[in-house]
Amino acid sequence: MTQTTPPQTDQPQTNQPFHQSMTAPLRRVLVRRPDQAFAVEDPEAWHYAARPDLAAAQAEHDAFTDILRKHGAEVVYHDMEQPGRADSVFVYDPALITREGAILLNPGKALRQGEQDALGRRLEELGVPVLGRLTGEQYAEGGDMFWLDDQTLAIGRTFRTTQAGVDALRALLEPRGVEVQVYDMPVGDGADACLHLMSVISPVAPDAAVVYPRLMPVPLWQELQRRGLRLIEVPDAEFPTQGSNVLAITPAVCLMLAGNPVTRTRLEDAGFTVESYVGNELSLKAEGGPTCLTKPLVRRA
């Protein structure tokens, strides 16, 4: 398979809104194809299971983006140089997209510091205005937040997202009419591991979410119940293989890692069309599934 980045459309799109949704049809999405930085020499330092094979990871990524295009998404690439930043392939984390533009976040993982600067420049090239940014000790990562609805953002307080980060986001979002709900996550496997809020929940339709209840904050579980969401539970055996990391392409079609047959069957039984990709190098070794690999820019019916 070719080792060059596939052709892309780079024309800025300034037609607002962008999105405040996790599940509206995906129209434009930013990705980053793995480069040499992803083939880390010291996987333990990055908390990777092993050193990824770069050629195999690139082939997996190409197949992954082919699925997105198949369902009508325009795929654009974040190709600015990020030397030494292996995790920059996980473009979901350094920014939050709102209907007015982007807020640049501030990764709590020290090895990811600086990713937000390059991503911000790329977003502006693509016509996404930067509305603000977190600085100093205002730490937050995108994996700790998702839109509960188009006016409500759920944020997990974790090792990667601090109270100062939450306060900064609230100050930027509440004047724009966004309610921020904060949920405390458990310690999990410790500070070096990656237990984001979205490690345990993936919205797949306005009325449905894939969840791993064992590690969910009780108030979030109660909020989902209050909202009447259908909860599709991931079995214990499929949590380590990222069965709970599912990307909604439309409210009826979702994308997940291959190798999670029980979760897939439960999604299909709930009426979803399920696509899957092989991510042995791209995802399983590096702790990042389909939501992590994408930064949806435009979602709309």
From TrEMBL:
Stretches the record annotates as Disordered: 1-21
Organism of this sequence: Deinococcus metallilatus
Biased composition, Low complexity: where in the chain? 1-17
Query: Which Pfam families does the record associate with it?
Result: DDAH_eukar (PF19420)
Q: What is the lineage of its organism?
A: Bacteria, Thermotogati, Deinococcota, Deinococci, Deinococcales
Write the protein's name.
N-dimethylarginine dimethylaminohydrolase
Task: Note the SUPFAM superfamilies from the entry.
Answer: Pentein
